[in-house]
Amino acid sequence: MLENFLQVSLNGLINGSTYALLGVAFGLIIGVTGRFHVAFAVTYTLAAFVAAWLTMYLGAPFWAAVVAGALVAALTGSAIERFVYWPILLRTGANGLLMVFVASLGVSIVGRNLIALTTLQNSATVVNGFSNVGLNLGPVTLSSLNLATATVDWLLIVSLSQLLARTSLGRIIRAVRANHEMALCVGIDPGAVTFIVFAIGSFMGGAAGVFQAALTSATPDMGITPFFYALVVAFVAGLSSPPLVVAAVGIALGLVESWTTLVLPTTWTALVVFGILFIYVALRPLRRGLASA
Amino acid sequence: MNNRPDRASGWSRGNFLAATAALSAAPLLGAADNSTTGKMQRLLGIDPRFSGKGQTFDVGVLTALTGSGAIYGSHGTDVFKLAARDIETLGGPTLNMIYKDNKSGDPQAGVQAMRELGAAKVPMMLSTYSADLGAALPGIKEYKVFSVDGTGGTSQYAMGKPYFWGAIAITPDDAFPGALKYVAAKMPQVKKYAFVGWDLGPLSDIVAKDLQKDVGTSMKLVADERTKVGTTDYSASIQKVKAADPDIIFLAIYAEDVGYFMKQYATSGIDKPVLAFAHSQAAATIAGAAYEGLYFAFDYFDAAHPGNPYADYFVDSFKGMEGGFLPEFYVANLYEDTFVLWECIRRVLKSGGNARDGEQLDAALRANPVFPSVYGGDSGKPGVLAFDVDTHSVKKRPMRVLQFKGGKIVTLAYFNIDGADFRLA
Fold first, then answer.
1. Which residue in B68, B199, B263 is closest to A219 by CB distance?
2. Residues of each domain in chain B carrying CATH 3.40.50.2300
3. B13-169+306-392: which CATH topology?
4. B173-298+400-424 is classed in which CATH architecture?
5. What residue ranges of chain B have pLDDT lower than 50?
6. Between chains, do A267 and B235 touch, taking CB under 8 Å as contact?
7. DSSP state, A265?
């Protein structure tokens, strides 16, 4: 019984680490720029396919493919900001965020279909090159790929946390997140910061996509569910929260989701995740009301 | 073995003998032509007077053009085109394929597709996803669209539905008895089993109950785990199975999902045998080394050793189109289904009827529900695809127990529907 609980908890921690990375990456983008970046799903998917193609057709080493996939995601995310969102906001001004959301939705649909068209004839697209073995840790078992995934997740989260807390770039990013206009007044170029934030967030999301493809396979639809997880984690944690707080929410979500399977069928886990978001959204005004009373 | 209607009726000994006689008499037709085309014409008993040559027939194709199953839809449309080309080469009509997207199982798409095909008065259809998981069945009935589904079959819910025929063994139900005979023969230590299956609502309960009935008292169910179709994370399901400590796991999930499951199962710390009811190259690619040792029980198409001249013709044709790649059972069925439609067209033309009428095509199948098959047979004659006119599913279908061993599929046993004719390899 205890062994089962420990294994389920470990599974929750592993999945939660990925939710944490996704939440931190998406939360950084929407928290700093205000863009509801639905196309986050496309950059996540593209990274997975790039890594898979590199390992399948060019025989690239696994870790090189991870970096290359994440870099392509970073470039694509920045390009979407520069060539889609930025021009829209220049034309529409303060009311442009809704237009950006619609455009992002469009980019995600077009991107997903372009990937599907490109990959339709392939039997299965997988990221090769990682020797995955089971690791027995006392009463629980863990795969080496899961261990690598969680390690990279936390390496990226902690790195971002340190970047934001200890570097001048981090201070600039936090300044734009806190007050866009004030940052402009003190000589910060919010356009450049937005560009960098998209690159960082997309890189992190892309890395998560590559590991997911290594665990399963790369498919054109693979970005949709992780996007919703990222959304839930980022919103529940709060859009101005530091990365480690967001990550803690991701871990909590993974654990709750996993523990749910101890008492409910596994098909109900998604209901639990989105139930948490619903309760949060429903109770938030109430909490504000109590605070102001 | 289960609660489905008896399939014995409607496929009489007389029908079978008549079909066998027809297949045997085929060499009498077109005796002079020894080309591959001529041999196939004789093999399939094609009478040039009623082959439909020079005519064009509309054929609806309801398949996954978008969504998670689009890769199968893409391969399927290639094979439908190949079959149509081969039919024309063999002196048949032009089949004008009208493709409709079921969006990988979206019921609304199926309903809309039937409305469009009905409005266009399309008399026949090749379908997948068991006519969009049932949503297209009312439209098939309303518009009298003679339909053959070779990838999902009738399943349980579409048995006996008007104008709809399943040209594949019902999975996993039809394979259970043969699989269990193999387990009893070769794995006597197995006393407890876990069932992991797609969550298809009430249908999943029927499948699980069928398995339990077939198992009887020989084994005890210790875990019944349902998973969402298309899910990729099986960690929770595998943990539940692990906690139940079964001796064997029956895996009623399909397509790539088998690969995802095995990839995670291999590092889960369980070493009990897993028996699945489908194999695909995509699943094998996804799982990689984790696929090793996996057992299967289903109507496997052995493209490396086709075993009959009709299958040889199909494999050669497919390899020509796909640059040497071998076909899997999924596309073999789609190819065969297209030829079933053509044979029904020929039968109606021969009787002087209207082959653009779905009702007459359906009657042609009912009158003699036996067709040549790429499955079974021997080096001299094709196998037999026989439908049951009550259930509309297949009455006979050669199946196998197999194992993925050393990177290859190895046959361990042969059997037919309900475990008939079981023998170890």
1. B68
2. 13-169+306-392, 173-298+400-424
3. Rossmann fold (3.40.50)
4. 3-Layer(aba) Sandwich (3.40)
5. 1-31
6. no
7. -
Give the one of A128, A143, A222 whose C-beta lies nearest to B267's C-beta.
A143
User: pLDDT tens for residues A195-238?
Assistant: 999 999 999 999 999 999 999 999 888 999 999 999 999 988 88
CA gap A19, B165 in Å, rounded: 45
Which segments of chain A does DSSP mark as H helices, in order?
2-33, 40-57, 62-80, 86-92, 96-119, 144-166, 168-178, 180-185, 190-215, 224-237, 243-263, 269-292
List strands edge to edge, sheet with B381-387.
B370-378, B381-387, B394-396
ipTM above 0.90, yes or no: no
| pLDDT one-digit tens code per residue, B305-357 | 888 999 999 999 999 887 777 888 889 999 999 999 999 999 999 999 999 99
> What one-character DSSP code corresponds to residue B90?
T
Q: Is A265 exposed, middle or buried (0-12, 13-18, 19+ CB in 10 A)?
A: middle
- Residue among B394, B363, B354 at smallest CA distance from B376: B394
A2 φ/ψ angles, rounded to the nearest 5 degrees: -65, -40
Q: Which residue of B has its CA nearest to A121?
A: B71
**Closest approach of B101 to chain A, Cα-based (Å):** 15
Mark B17-45 as b/e (b = at least 16 C-beta within 10 Å). Answer: eebeeebeebeebbeeeeeebbbbbbbbb
